[in-house]
Amino acid sequence: MSDSGLTSLSVGSDSTFLKRVSFDTFDNKDASDFSLTLKSKHKDYTYTRRSRTFLCGTDQNDYSEFALEWLIDELVDDGDEVVCLRVVDKDSKISSDVALQERQYRHEAQNLLDQIIEKNEDDKTISIILEFAVGKVHETIQRMVGYFYGLFGILLLSPGLTYQPPPP
Asked: Which of 24, 49, 108, 152 is such that its CA lies 20 to 30 A from the CA of 131?
């Protein structure tokens, strides 16, 4: 169900990012949440008390690409963590039984993680978490933000993705 250990993850000819422990409940029918979590960090990344965590909701639209690039280029510094959330609708092709059997979702998620890493053109020493979750977009965003609530420095959502903060 999970991959463990640290291994080099090559992006192009570079292997500056290390693969971290991953979690996969995407095809576990008994799980309460269906998601795949992929984690990668720059080889020199160190979490400190000054580290910040950013959430960026992403989908397959150009504005999501722009939001993620802007986040990494303009806001993120060495030592920060970026959590990218991609929500897949329950009725989508990628979450169908055939796709689950062939584990296509894992390939799509790994490709997305590789694209996110490539956006770190300034070689910032950051940690990246990709949450690839199945569900209704609004409900899943609410649940994930609730899960990470208190960790975020800034919450950045693409147009069309909204967040309702929890009551005080």
From this structure: 49
**At residue 66, what is the residue type?**
F
**Cβ(71)–Cβ(80) under 8 Å?**
no
How many of the other CB atoms lie within 10 Å of CB of 137?
17
CA 71 to each of CA 32, 81, 84, 93: distance values in angstroms, whole numbers, following the listed order: 31, 11, 11, 29
Tokens of 141: 């965003």
Statement: 2-156 belongs to CATH 1.10.3470: no
Which pTM was predicted? 0.73
Q: What would the pLDDT profile of 5-46 be if each residue is shown by its tens digit?
A: 334 344 444 578 888 766 555 555 554 566 788 999 999 999
